[in-house]
Amino acid sequence: GQSLEQPSEVTAVEGAIVQINCTYQTSGFYGLSWYQQHDGGAPTFLSYNALDGLEETGRFSSFLSRSDSYGYLLLQELQMKDSASYFCAVGATNKLIFGTGTLLAVQP
Amino acid sequence: DAGITQSPRHKVTETGTPVTLRCHQTENHRYMYWYRQDPGHGLRLIHYSYGVKDTDKGEVSDGYSVSRSKTEDFLLTLESATSSQTSVYFCAIRDTSKDRYTFGSGTRLTVV
Q1: Chain A: closest CA distance from residue B7 (Å)
Q2: Contacts of B101 in chain A (CB under 8 A)
């Protein structure tokens, strides 16, 4: 089966940097994704790592270590609008399995 | 944004009644998915489809069935709704070229 672990809540201040970690156990792994969900909204795609290393997209970066079954999402220059839930998800055999999500609260 | 719509957006139904939720896409993607979201559980996969008439079970498929008679439509049916199926249901389509999933706006279902 598949399982993912990520912190349930993280708090940070505006302008700071925050890292959200994700560890996973899965069979048929082919990539780690991150999704953002604002309260009451649909999840939206942030990033995807198929290979080890860092992927950067603007203020957001995502890292994957396949040997450690570990990844993280790095958010820089935090803004109030970044307050949301963040989900890591593993791609495995035609489907995407999600972690339980990390609620990020950005404070002024 | 990718063309994916869910209907209805909200529904209240009684225990024991059948309910069908609809997901419609205009992107011609092969893969479509149904998830449910509950507090503390994140998004859990119910069923998915990898083509017309091709479907498979996810993590929490008991009490649900699906059908895909056309590429653009993926239906989720609760044969006999129970209060434990009160949830927010999300449909998603998968762009395999980028391995990116796009979600619909969700259906909030309440079973009373």
Answers
A1: 14
A2: 33, 35, 43, 45, 96
3-state secondary structure of B58: coil
Residue A105 sits at φ, ψ, to 5 deg, of -110, 120
Helix, coil or strand: residue B84: helix
Residue A100 to residue B41, Cβ atoms within 8 A: yes
Q: Number of A to B CB contacts under 8 A, please give it.
A: 52
Q: What's the N-to-C CA distance of chain A in angstroms? A: 41
Query: Given CB atoms, is A3 within the 8 Å cutoff of chain B?
Result: no
Per-residue confidence of chain B (112 residues) as pLDDT tens digits? 569 999 999 999 999 999 999 999 999 999 999 999 998 888 999 999 999 999 999 999 999 999 999 999 999 999 999 999 999 999 999 998 888 999 999 999 999 9
